[in-house]
Write a structure and sequence with these properties.
mainly alpha
Amino acid sequence: MSGGPAGPTPDFPVSPNHIAALASLIWETEGRPLGRDREFWLQAEALLRAHGPEGGVVALDEV
């Protein structure tokens, strides 16, 4: 198990394309601020990992 800003995450692959898509949505939701790309990437990765390998829908109120 690896630790990140959101705590431990399961060890299963998360597609970089899925992370990028969700990170972009988070960036848009936050008003497109500059310089926070790593923060949004890590947040998106943590959300996707929290939903397990089967995926599922990440609700906008979780973003």
